[in-house]
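Reopening this one. Same input as before:
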Amino acid sequence: MSADYRRCAELIRAADGLLITAGAGIGVDSGLPDFRGPQGFWGAYPALGRARIAFEQIANPAAFKARPRLAWGFYGHRLNLYRRTVPHAGFAILREIGESLPRGAFVFTSNVDGHFEKAGFAAERIAECHGSIHFLQCLDGCHDGIWPADDFQPALDEEQCLLTSEFPLCPRCHGIARPNILMFGDWGWLAERSDAQEARLHAWRRQVDRLLVIEVGAGTNIPTARLMGERMNGPLIRINPTQAQVADDKNVAVAAGALAALRSIAASLV
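Same output, byte for byte:
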């Protein structure tokens, strides 16, 4: 493993820009729940487990129409959780690596928690391909607006996974708002904010001559972040405790959790 970390250091020193691709696994060391498999999801949300409601069924715009207090109970809990959780020290290590390179870093993440910005990454250098829980849109699609969720402070019955406070409302039609997140079976997601972020990413990429990708906690179940890094055709450092396989020897597989791996990479750079 020490040889792998030395190779990581060599790749970082040779790069002029860093693309960080991240999936849900990066948040585990911050204390966020792992939804891998129905048992992991139901362990985090036992009320949904008792009702045998799978992640794909509640993370679905149809749930907001059929059972809005349950849907907002789930997403309201996540919003509160993400607001109070502190990103672990690995985020700062990634930020420092990026700041050491001439073209800096850009983040591409399938996470909706907003933790890269919370950890100090510039908002204009983050692409959230599935949206963000910190923004809202109209559930009925009465207009194309996306607005911050800052004023929404959900109160919950956590035992039943139900919203007990008022719903967030659309400022135009005054109907229920939903998170600006790409869900399962979602034809109504407004992608304009995420599309603009990705356009900035590709503009930045054109300025980078020696790109390095560091992928953290991106699995194969929903492989959006994983595929983005692979499409870049540069060297890739893949950090994943269970799915670290890489295609060839120009890349490095680090079979470890995010924080432990990033701390070892940082030590190899000293």
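So the earlier flakiness isn't reproducible anymore. For the record, The longest strand covers residues 131-138.
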